[in-house]
Amino acid sequence: MSSTPTPAEIEHAVALFKAGNHPELEERARLMLQQHPDSGFAWKALGLSLQAQGKDALEALEKTAQFFPDDAAAHCDLAVALIASRRFGEAAASCRRALQINPGFAEAHCNLGIALHELRQVDAAMASWRHALAINPDFAEVHNILGNALLDLGKVDEAVSSYRRAVAIRPDFAVAHSNLGRALQALGQFDEAASSHRRALAIAPGFAEASVNLGNAQQSLGRLDESVTSYRHALAIDANIAEAHNNLGNTLRLLGQRNEAVASYRRALAINPGFVGAHSNLGIVMEELGQRETAVASYRQALAINPAYAGAHSELGRILRDLGRLDEAAESCRRALAIDPDLAGAHNNLGNILLDRKQVDAAVTHYRRALSIDSKFVEAHNNLGAALRAAGKLEEAAESCRQALTLKPDYAAAHHSLGNILRDLTRIDDAVASYRRALEINPDFAAAYDSLLFCLSHHEAVDSRALFAEHCRFGERFEPPLRAAWPNHANSREPERRLQVGFVSGDLRAHAMANFVEPIFAQLSGNPQLSLHAYSTNVIEDNVTERMKGYVPHWHQVAALSEPDLAQKITRDGIDILVDLSGHTGKHRLLTFARKPAPVQISWMGYPGTTGLQAIDYYVTDRHFLPHEPFARQFTEKFVYLPASAPFKPKASAPPVNPLPALANGHLTFGSFNHPRKISRAVIALWAQLLRAVPDSRLLMGGMPRDGQNGSLVEWFAEENIAQDRIDFHPRSVMETYLRLHHQVDICLDTFPYHGGTTTLHALWMGVPTLTLAGNTPAARTGASILGHVGLDAFVAHDPAEFVDKGVAWEGRFAALSVVRSEMRERFAGSAMGQPALVAEGFHRALRLMWRRWCEGLPPLEIDTGDTQL
């Protein structure tokens, strides 16, 4: 059998190769090998035909190189097959053999570069490609490959130049057009990028990767519907492109089509279970769907595949924070930063966790680090503002928020944060404007509405009608869409059965509210007619929380639950009467109450005003605080009158009452311990009138910023001709120091129109009465209510002139004031506020009356527990 094909066989094979008829060439080559098994030509024909068809040509090309040891092309072809088999070291050796034979063989330099690049010998690879181009400057494929390598190295401008050279040489080079588009995307030139991808698709309509890249460019341009079309086109060409499914999911999520996004991510993971990005993206959308635990599982799956994925550690930390698992959250963020110390998002997330823990200085450090990495990180600017506010550095805090708004003028959260800071600076009109701007941008921003309402309650120019109308607008904005889904409560309508009573609050911890709530829990805990549930909406728990848990058999940590999920839980728990203890203050869940999860709903203690919701039936108060006229018309709820709105638990560690300081000093010392945000210019003007009317008097101001930023107050007093040396400023301090400062004060001065509450009660316990100016809004009644309970109406004024007169009246009457001081604790103990059992019994009586009305199908009605017996 001859080892050499006939000339006719060779000519036929060559013709087939030139015509690109590779399947027939393969068939002819196999026939030749049957007849001529030692024919180098036949092995070469078989190898080239297989290679052209994408089949395994390695054996045939190895044989070819053996038959033609001095044929540079044979060694180069073998190198291509070895690269396809990922045998990169052998491929490099074959290329070098080809170049020994023919140093000017550009294709061999090209393939050597590919092999070296796969071996991570990047510099050597680049040198090989540049050598190939020195030999053949018009080698379009090498320009394209070199562009890919430059793009991987982050040398985007050079990559663009290489791709442009490739398509200039070969205008129909579809892959290079699409790669040029990818590089332009990296430069942020998204319109040009989209044009390049479209050019690639015009050349090769079935080029699925170009369609995916076009979708990416369109997504970056915000052309989301077009992006979806491009991804779907790519998947119509090849349904198994995991990246296309993943990117389609991202676009669908941005369009708000979250369930469809979940399906896309799951399809991507079915194709490629190790697709870390798809696991992470699935975590993001599951969180948005309120399925936080599922989201955590997705992030953990991503990290199981790639433990060094810093971004997933950071996102896991963020969501664990939302779940209230702060220790785990901090650990995840720290792992992210151990992997990538320059991951700005992880610094920002860790800052949020530290701020939750009240570790303000550490939080500031991480926010600043995030901004040193990415100066345009708007969320970090805003969060830094919040941390600086917590540190009392209000001007710096405002500047941080303004920086966020410079970068993103429609950033509603930053407008809200700036409003909070301006409110603390007592710039109430500016704060209101910031809150309203936040609501213009996002009308469903409930927290901004809460802040607006709270701020308006501090505004002396806002009358009771306007304030009530604004609260009603809150209800009108958020409640109507939920009413249709109010449940038909299946609670048993037995009027005398044991009641399931739930309390919802974010302040069941070391907080001012604990002074009022804890004594109620302690009294109700032994009542066999009530089963108590607490729903804590704050991730922070402390020793006060643990103490309260001892009074409440059913304690639910619900900080991580969404509004609808919490509503469903409350309904499942069979709550008969649900009590809001927050109103429009932090961590409230009024939008849970708006879903009417319980048959009877009440607002109590946490906020001096209406919720504005029709879903809340009653507001608990007393007749000292809110007499029916004129206040009933300022509430959407019906009043429930107790002996006192709430009991107050004085600090057991409070120092004893000391003798009246004026007896030793020879002059009156007025005092204020209210938050600086309550001390407006108008308040200073009235206090200054009193100080001028009592020339020898002094003023002690506690609770001031720790950094000593009292400049505005000093200026305001100076404008009122009150010398600075008559005023003593004391920074915010621990409770013992704060209470002991009352030993220097004869009479406290109340703020207006938002009175002190806890501060007034602490002052009473320390023997110090508070001079207050009663107003016509609920927030302006607190002082009058407290003083009325202890029989000190002499300290309640009804206009500014009376305020000054009543203050002046104590000048020279130190003996009488000393008696008031010495009797104060006795007065308090004898009042309803000092008798938790009395208040708790009234509350229990009210609960039963409310429940009976519901059982009888009757609407809510004003209740006075003093007039009704069980």
E-strand count:
14
Helix content: 55-70%
Physical arrangement of strands within the biggest beta sheet: 3-2-1-4-5-6-7-14
Task: Report the sheet with the most strands, covering strand number, pairing sense and barrel closure.
Answer: 8 strands, parallel
Q: What is the count of DSSP helices, taking H or I runs of 4+ residues?
A: 43
Provide the residue-averaged pLDDT.
Answer: 94
Overall shape: elongated
Structural class: alpha/beta
Please give the alpha-carbon distance between the first and last residues: 118 Å
Name the poorly predicted regions: none
Rg for CA atoms: 38 Å
In terms of quaternary structure, the protein is single chain
What does the model show?
The mean pLDDT is 94. This protein is α/β, with parallel strands linked by helices and 870 residues long. Strands 3-2-1-4-5-6-7-14 form an 8-stranded parallel beta sheet, covered by helices on one side. Strands 10-9-8-11-12-13 form a 6-stranded parallel beta sheet. Helix content is 58%, strand content 7%. It starts with 6 loop residues before the first helix and ends in a 6-residue tail after the last strand. α30 (514-524) links the parallel β1 (499-505) and β2. α23 (378-390) runs antiparallel to α24 (394-407).
